[in-house]
Amino acid sequence: MADLMDGEREGVDASEENKTETLAYQQSMTCIQSLHDVEDFRYNKELLNALHWMLQGHHHPLKAAGQWRKTSIRITAPGDELATDYEGPDQDLVPGLMGEFVDWLNDGDLDHHVLIRAAMAHLNLWSPERDTLPWIKFSLLAYHQQAQRVQFRVDRSNGCWMHLMDAKDELGLSERQMTALHEVAMTGQVRRSRYERAEAINTQQATRDLQALTKAQVLTAVGQTKGRHYTAGPRFPQDVLATARRPHTIVDPYAA
User: How many other C-beta atoms are found inside a 10 Å radius of the C-beta of residue 237?
Assistant: First the structure.
C-alpha cells in the first residue's frame, strides 16, 4: 500500500474499496500528526466528527459521517446475527456522553501515563462499565508487541542498507540507486514514481537509473506503462534479501 499512499492508484493490487479505505485512514492520521505540536491544542467534539468524516465520508450518502448517529446501533456475535455482543447507548444520549468524553480527554487523569490514558480512552468510549485491569493489560501488551515489530523493522532496514553498502562497488551502484534496491528488499518491489520522489530527481533520471539496474540484471521489470514495477533480478545481492526475509519472534514481556 506504500505506492497507493504515494499517490499511485494504477497497478496497485487491491480492490477499489480497500484503496479508498487506506487513503481515508492516511488522511485522518496525517491530520492527527499535524496537531502533535500545537501548543494550545484541545480536544473537542468537532474534531472527533471531522476525523469520523475523513474515515467514513466516502460512504456518504449511504452512511452519514461527521455527525452523531440518529438511530440505535448494536454489534452482533460472530455467526449469530440475533445475538448482541454490544449495544450502544440511546442515540439521544450520544451528544452529552461525547461531551463528557471530550472533557475527560482534556482534563481527566492527566497524572497517568499516556499509554494508560489511551487504553482508558478506548474503554470509556465503548464499555466504561467493564473492569479496567484486563483491558489495560491487553492494551499494554499490544503496545509492547507493536514496538517490537517496529524495532525489528528498523533493524532489518539497517541490516539491508549495510549489505548494500558492501555490494555497492561490485555492482557499480550510485548512492541513489541503493535507495531503489533497499525499497525492493524491504517491500518486494519499487516503482519509478516512488523512487523519483524518494531521491528528489526528475522522471528521466529515475527511468535511466532503473533501466541501468535492469540491464545489469540487478532488477527485473514487471508490467508495462503505469503498472510497471521492478523486483529483484538474478544479480540482486542475496545477503540483502536474506536479511530482509529474516524471521523474528514477538515475545510477551509479561509472561511468567
Answer: 21
Neighbours of 232 (CB within 10 A): 20
Grid cell at residue 229: 514495477
Neighbours of 178 (CB within 10 A): 18
Is 50 within a domain? yes
| Grid cell 530482509 in the structure block, residue | 244
Give how far Cα 256 sits from Cα of 140, 143, 246, Å: 16, 18, 27
Q: Which of 95, 92, 98, 87 is nearest to 127 (CA)?
A: 87
- Whether pLDDT at 231 is above 90: yes
Q: Which residues contact 44 (CB under 8 A, 6 or more apart)?
A: 102
Q: Which three cell numbers stand for residue 213?
A: 539496474
Q: Would you give the DSSP letter of residue 15?
A: -
Angle of helix 175-187 versus helix 203-215 axis, rounded to 10: 70
Which residues constitute the domain of residue 13? 1-67
Q: N- to C-terminal Cα distance for the chain?
A: 38
- Say how many domains are in the chain: 2
Task: Indicate the pTM of the whole model.
Answer: 0.76
Mean pLDDT of the chain: 90
* 22 in any annotated domain: yes
Domain assignment present for 184: yes
